[in-house]
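Worked example 2:
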Amino acid sequence: KGGFFSESAGHDKFATQAIHRALQADLGEASEAGVAGADLLKKARLNYEANSQVIDDLKSTTLAKLFNSKTMPPPEKIENAFASMPRSQIKASMEMLGDVDPGLQQGLQRFWLGRAMNKGRDAAAALPSGEVRFDPDTVLKNLKNDDTFKAVFNDPRSRGQVMEGVRVLRKLGIGTGRPSPQLVQKTREGAGVVQSLNGTFVARFLAGTLAPTAFAKALFTKEGVNNLRLIAKPTSKPAAVASAMVELEQMMESGNTQ
């Protein structure tokens, strides 16, 4: 995954390079030998060479330097390093992580999106309790022309999903102090059918006072955005809206969202 044999005792750079060259040579000889599976070996060699070049190109990046150790750095250290990276490094790193470590890629995307949601808090619209509302309009404006957003979410479909989710929140009036009357009514009616619906969560969701990372969790997955779509759909029944709210709570409130 980028630090070939870097966890071996002594971390012998010279030996590692020799093994690297020998492996490339063996793959090349086998792929040209005409034996069974030679075509697959040839593809493997080309993929290995291509990824090795990418890894070499990224060795000087902040993220790569962080992983040049024998132990996995803590999440906070990874996140802080990622947050300080220039956009060009973010773009290259995210493209590579999509191939070699999708889990880490998604974790960094969620982290970045949570920070973006935090910037969407409207301090001018603080409630008497001191809670600050999440403002979808501000988030949309911030993300629309943000090149770093494009670098972090390098797949246009994932960017589109996030933007659509924020638009649905805006349509529902989340954080405006004027949530959709239809949604409020359906939620009340649905509460009589779906006993597991949490009234406190619903109230905070409608007010937009849930933690920014909670909204980020809803926008990050297809399931979250699909639930938002269902809630916003005029023809959705109260019970379906309430059930979608229950699923959103499980998703948005999991872990520490404060």
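The radius of gyration is 24 Å. Confidence is low (pLDDT under 50) at residues 1-24.
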